[in-house]
């Protein structure tokens, strides 16, 4: 009987140790935080603007960091190094959101403004929210869902039958 009590006590001690270790591991995990990104170097952004004249302002939050004139419906502006992302490109009441400066061509029109509004409603201008907002803005007919935008013989899609 004494041996059984010692074994039960040992099992109880082992369980208590394991539970406390698990509890410490759960508490010591850092909270997931969004990482603030910045441009590494200066970058030139350009694109088409729905309005044929006016200005395009690049905003880092509330601050205007760069401006350019719209000429023949196009703009080009330089974004300084170490600019916080996302960047809002604004022309009159239209906007476009820059979440990655590896892409340097950003049009500013009603479509980009609607995508930005949907992303903001989803919680902000994050990559995931921008992707969700953009994908929900494009209508693809049910008859054409073999691959986004593909129209034709599916046996020749991507170079052959897959």
How would you concisely characterize the structure shown here?
The chain has helices spanning 2-28, 110-121, 127-137; strands at residues 43-48, 55-60, 63-69, 74-79, 87-91, 94-98.
What order do the helices and strands come in, and which of them pair?
Elements: H1 2-28, E1 43-48, E2 55-60, E3 63-69, E4 74-79, E5 87-91, E6 94-98, H2 110-121, H3 127-137
Antiparallel strand pairs: 1-4, 2-3, 2-5, 5-6
Which structural traits does this protein have?
two-stranded antiparallel ribbon, 22% strand, 3 helices
Description:
With 162 residues, this protein is α+β, with helices and mostly antiparallel strands. Helices cover 31% and strands 22% of the residues. The chain has 3 helices and 6 strands. It has a 4-stranded antiparallel beta sheet. A two-stranded antiparallel sheet has the order 1-4. The protein is globular and about 30 Å long. The model is unreliable at 23-33 (pLDDT under 50).
């Amino acid at each position: 009987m004494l041996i059984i009590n010692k074994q039960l006590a040992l099992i109880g001690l082992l369980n208590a140790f394991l539970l406390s270790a698990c509890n410490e591991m759960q508490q010591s995990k850092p909270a997931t935080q969004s990482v603030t990104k910045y441009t590494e170097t200066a970058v030139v952004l350009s694109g088409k603007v729905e309005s044929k004249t006016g200005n395009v302002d690049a905003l880092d939050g509330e601050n205007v960091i760069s401006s350019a004139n719209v000429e023949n419906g196009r703009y080009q502006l330089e974004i300084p190094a170490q600019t916080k992302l996302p960047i809002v490109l604004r022309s009159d009441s239209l906007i476009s959101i820059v979440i990655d400066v590896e892409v340097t061509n950003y049009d500013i029109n009603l479509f980009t403004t609607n995508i930005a509004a949907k992303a903001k409603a989803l919680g902000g201008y994050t990559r995931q929210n921008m992707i969700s907002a953009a994908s929900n803005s494009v209508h693809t007919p049910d008859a054409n869902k073999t691959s986004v935008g593909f129209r034709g013989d599916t046996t020749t899609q991507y170079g052959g039958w897959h």
